[in-house]
């Protein structure tokens, strides 16, 4: 009969933790070598850092976490590393390792007799942080791992004159670590108060009192950032995705690490409930059955992913980016209950728990290994498209050369607005010859690949080959209205004002663009609108090519792109734009400007 023995050996218990951590580190290195840090916003963050040679601090509420994530890459830039592959590896490895390294530190701060409490950070890492491992660019996992270091320290370490003040300084960065500290700060405040009631040293008591005040301030600061976020849409979409369970599954697949985390809590609940009814052999039989059940679930989940039955959809991991913090709240409360004496700490040393965590952790890491392999296939497909020809490649046409399986895999990983950025990062030696457009017209993108004058150019990236091929070989002909001379291929433009550096305003009730040659029989016209003047907002603008008429209606004065389709059956060579309400700033705003403004344009493109 299967029999579970107590883990009494410190060496054995340390080995168990060491093996799990080493396996996690190996997976992290595999992910870094595969540049998994590019996923989601990661490619853009690295791209901005490389182009600016500086940190990219985009969110005040997470300033510290962002700083930690970007510090190694920044230092690499400072010492003169120019190789994008090396920088990408450093960037990715930092994102992968930070939550794991901090989790390991939470073990190191535990006194020898309290090492069993490491089970809580371990659960956090495998079923929280790794439930969003593909979204390593998100800072929530790092912020939560930092919490476990501080939480274990304040609960278990002996405070004295040597460590109390340094610990206080370690807590200060949490002020701008992440919004999840809104509730993690509550746990730290409670833990600090409890510790205050146990201390007799006057200096330590004063420091703990200061800590309580600090954590209250942290709660208030992060509450402000949650209520008044930099981007309301991001906050609202996160809560929408959370309550719609898109962090667990989508129509194409299951987030297996998140599912295994749920399975862990279900099995532990059953186990704890059964311990009150079963003893001896009956208890061991139940534990055996539960462990076999866990093995079967892992085998089925991982096997389904390998076979493609369970599609690997990385977006579910992005939607789970703060799950680690969410499960850490009850985990920390349970840990505190053990410390307070509500539960018997001997439970934490049970072999069953360690075996269960190990089995499910193997499933989590296996799923990530499979996912990284699919990510490598995604990168390979992207490079195939880049190598197919020079110039601008429209996503829909570029993907036609791929197999249906490759296109499906591409859809699992491609972010909505990062294709041009990825084209830069994956170019050979930074010599950009091809840029792939985004799968759909994004609301925003870092740069417009159709506007060659705005393309990033520096010591890391040289888009000369791309610029040469843009008009000659790409599917889009670009016309820059900010050029000092008439764009090539255009005979005249009537009804436009002067170049203001950022755009040109229309200065009439109509604009006529006369081309030297006849326009294509069928084409897409893409207008890059910089702004709309006063009364023209929510009014219909008409664009005419021969006898084909299209309309668009700007809803505000913000920049955006308009895409219109035309069938040029009468072989016209003129594009006419009709302005609904040409209005002078003199009349509308009382300024001295007498121009009849309608819409401000930066460029337009013709897509064949």
Topology:
Elements: H1 10-33, H2 42-52, H3 63-78, H4 84-108, H5 119-127, H6 140-156, H7 164-171, H8 181-198, H9 202-227, H10 232-243, E1 249-250, E2 253-254, H11 256-275, H12 280-307, H13 315-319, H14 323-340, H15 351-388, E3 391-393, H16 395-398, H17 404-413, H18 419-425, E4 434-436, H19 464-473, E5 476-480, E6 490-494, E7 496-499, E8 504-507, E9 510-515, E10 522-532, E11 541-545, E12 548-552, E13 560-567, E14 574-578, H20 585-588, E15 597-607
Parallel strand pairs: 3-4
Antiparallel strand pairs: 1-2, 5-15, 6-9, 7-8, 8-15, 9-14, 10-13, 10-15, 11-12, 11-14
Helix pairs in contact: 1-4, 1-15, 3-4, 4-6, 5-14, 5-15, 6-8, 6-14, 7-9, 8-9, 8-14, 11-12, 11-15, 12-15, 15-17
């Amino acid at each position: 009969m299967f029999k579970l023995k107590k883990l009494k050996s410190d060496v054995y218990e340390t080995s168990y933790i060491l093996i799990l951590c080493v396996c996690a580190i190996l997976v992290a290195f595999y992910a870094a070598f595969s540049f998994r840090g590019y996923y989601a916003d990661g490619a853009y963050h690295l791209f901005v850092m490389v182009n600016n040679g500086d940190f990219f601090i985009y969110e005040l509420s997470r300033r510290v976490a962002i700083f930690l994530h970007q510090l190694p890459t920044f230092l690499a830039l400072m010492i003169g590393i120019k190789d994008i592959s090396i920088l990408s590896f450093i960037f990715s490895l930092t994102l992968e390792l930070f939550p794991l390294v901090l989790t390991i530190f939470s073990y190191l701060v535990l006194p020898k007799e309290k090492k069993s409490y490491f089970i809580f950070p371990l659960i956090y890492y495998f079923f929280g942080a790794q439930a969003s491992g593909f979204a390593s660019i998100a800072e929530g996992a790092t912020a939560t791992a930092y919490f476990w270091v501080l939480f274990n320290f304040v609960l278990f370490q002996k405070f004295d004159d040597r460590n109390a003040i340094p610990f206080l300084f370690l807590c200060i960065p949490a002020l701008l670590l992440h919004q999840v500290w809104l509730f993690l700060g509550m746990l730290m405040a409670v833990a600090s108060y409890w510790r205050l009631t146990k201390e007799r040293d006057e200096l330590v008591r004063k420091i703990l009192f200061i800590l309580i005040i600090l954590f209250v301030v942290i709660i208030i600061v992060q509450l402000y950032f949650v209520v008044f976020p930099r981007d309301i849409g991001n906050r609202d979409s996160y809560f929408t995705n959370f309550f719609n369970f898109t962090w667990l599954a989508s129509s194409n697949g299951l987030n297996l690490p998140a599912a295994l985390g749920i399975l862990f809590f279900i099995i532990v609940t059953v186990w704890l409930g059964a311990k009150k009814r079963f003893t001896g052999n009956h208890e061991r039989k139940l534990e055996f059955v539960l462990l076999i059940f866990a093995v079967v679930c892992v085998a089925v989940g991982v096997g389904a992913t390998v076979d493609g039955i369970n599609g690997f959809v990385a977006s579910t991991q992005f939607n789970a980016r703060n799950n680690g913090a969410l499960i850490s709240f009850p985990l920390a409360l349970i840990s505190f209950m053990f410390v307070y004496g509500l539960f018997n700490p001997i439970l934490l040393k049970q072999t069953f728990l360690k075996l269960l965590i190990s089995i499910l952790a193997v499933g989590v890491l296996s799923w990530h290994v499979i996912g990284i392999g699919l990510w490598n296939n995604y990168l390979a497909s992207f490079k195939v498209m880049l190598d197919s020809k020079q110039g601008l490649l429209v996503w829909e046409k570029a993907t036609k050369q791929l197999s249906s399986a490759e296109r499906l895999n591409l859809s699992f990983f491609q972010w909505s607005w990062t294709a041009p950025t990825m084209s830069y990062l994956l170019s050979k030696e930074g010599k950009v010859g091809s840029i792939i457009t985004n799968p759909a017209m994004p609301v925003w993108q870092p740069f417009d690949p159709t506007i060659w004058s705005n393309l990033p150019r520096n010591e890391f990236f040289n888009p000369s080959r791309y610029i040469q091929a843009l008009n000659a070989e790409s599917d889009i002909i670009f016309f820059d209205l900010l050029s000092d001379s008439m764009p090539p291929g255009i005979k005249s433009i009537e009804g436009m004002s002067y170049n203001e550096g950022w755009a040109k305003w229309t200065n009439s009730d109509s604009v006529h663009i006369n081309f030297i040659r006849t326009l294509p029989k069928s084409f897409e016209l893409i207008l890059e609108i910089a702004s709309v003047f006063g009364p023209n907002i929510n009014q219909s603008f008409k664009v005419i090519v021969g006898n084909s008429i299209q309309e668009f209606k700007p809803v505000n004065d913000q920049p955006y792109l308009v895409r219109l389709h035309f069938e040029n059956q009468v072989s016209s060579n003129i594009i006419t734009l009709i302005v609904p309400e040409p209005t002078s700033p003199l009349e509308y705003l009382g300024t001295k400007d007498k121009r009849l403004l309608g819409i401000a344009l930066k460029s337009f493109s013709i897509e064949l």
